[in-house]
């Protein structure tokens, strides 16, 4: 059995998560304005707050089919 990390994931589980994440990124990256990494909680929260504030204050492009 692989090593267990503080979050309770084995090496195999972490590899599956990484592989799935890479596949999702390849498929959907063109729909995303940013990637939020779940690593340092304070940094991730700060980046999320900044992104929300930016969405609230700056115009952004979305496909017209999303608003119909």
From TrEMBL:
It comes from the Eukaryota. InterPro entries: MAGUK, P-loop_NTPase. PANTHER family: MEMBRANE-ASSOCIATED GUANYLATE KINASE MAGUK (PTHR23122). This is Guanylate kinase-like domain-containing protein.
């Amino acid at each position: 059995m692989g090593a267990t990390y503080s979050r309770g994931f084995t090496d195999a589980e972490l590899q599956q998560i990484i592989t799935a994440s890479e596949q999702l990124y390849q498929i959907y990256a063109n729909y995303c304005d940013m990637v939020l990494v779940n690593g340092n909680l304070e940094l991730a929260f700060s980046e999320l707050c900044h992104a929300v504030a930016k969405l609230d204050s700056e115009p952004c492009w979305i496909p017209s089919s999303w608003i119909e």
